[in-house]
Amino acid sequence: MSTQLSNLRLIESYLDDLRSLIEESDRIQSLGVSSEDNDYDLRKLLSKITKFLERNDDGDDYDELVEQYQELLNEVKTIDTKDYEYVRNIHIKPLNNKKSVRFNDKVEEASPKKFKPYKDQVLDPPAQSDTDQLFDGRELDDDQEDDTDSVNSSSNQEMFIQHQQELVQQDEHLDTLAQSVRRQRALGLDINQELDDQNILLDDLEAQLDHNDRNLSSGQKRLKYFSEKAKENGQWITIIILVIILVLLLIILK
Questions:
Q1: Distance between CA atoms of 46 and 51, rounded to whole angstroms?
Q2: Which residues, 6 or more positions from 8, have their beta carbon under 8 angstroms from its beta carbon?
Q3: CA dihedral defined by 191, 195, 197, 203, rounded to 10 degrees?
Q4: pTM, 2 dp
Q5: Residue 126 pLDDT > 60
Q6: Distance CA 225, CA 236 (A)
Q7: Where is the composition biased (Acidic residues) (predicted)?
Q8: pLDDT tier for residue 139 given thresholds of 50, 70 and 90
Q9: Rounded to an integer, what distance in angstroms lies between the CA atom of residue 95 and that of residue 136?
Q10: What is the distance between the alpha carbons of residues 168 and 174, in angstroms, rounded to a whole number?
């Protein structure tokens, strides 16, 4: 009876581990992360549960547990579960037929006893039930070790998921920073384009100033030339003007 209770508790713990692995698998799939390690643990646990049920399923006590296992198996989406389906095959032992005893009317004559030489008594091998209990104890120890491994694997999976969530948050921060850098780059390009346009306008203004400066220099050179010529020929011009005035006076006076 105690072995039956321990087996029921053990399969319940297996189903709880399976439920947590399925939830972790769905969470990993929603994050878009590879779930190879989780799928490996899932296959290992499903194989363990099917072997356990095939070995210990002996009647009505396992009805609800088998139904829970089938429901959880239908929720698995990341692996193919055809190899892990469990089909119940409970064998009912037939009742032993009543033994019939027949009495023989003829009584055999008593024959003298034949004595055999003495031999050491050979101990019978241990009963099958004792060996079964021994192996069941070893299997329970193995199952407990498997439970410890499953707990460690679940904690490792939780740490892995937490690490993946931190990486996703860091990626989001990096995306925000990248968008800010892109905006700053676009603003810098706009400022650079505006400066190029201003440089073009300044170049045009400088060209116009150079042209006006050349025209002004040319006008100054011409004025200087005329002033120099006027200084050189000033006396002759004065004499010519006086001669013209004298001629006009003579003409008028006559």
A1: 9
A2: 61, 62, 65
A3: 180
A4: 0.36
A5: no
A6: 18
A7: 139-149
A8: low
A9: 27
A10: 10
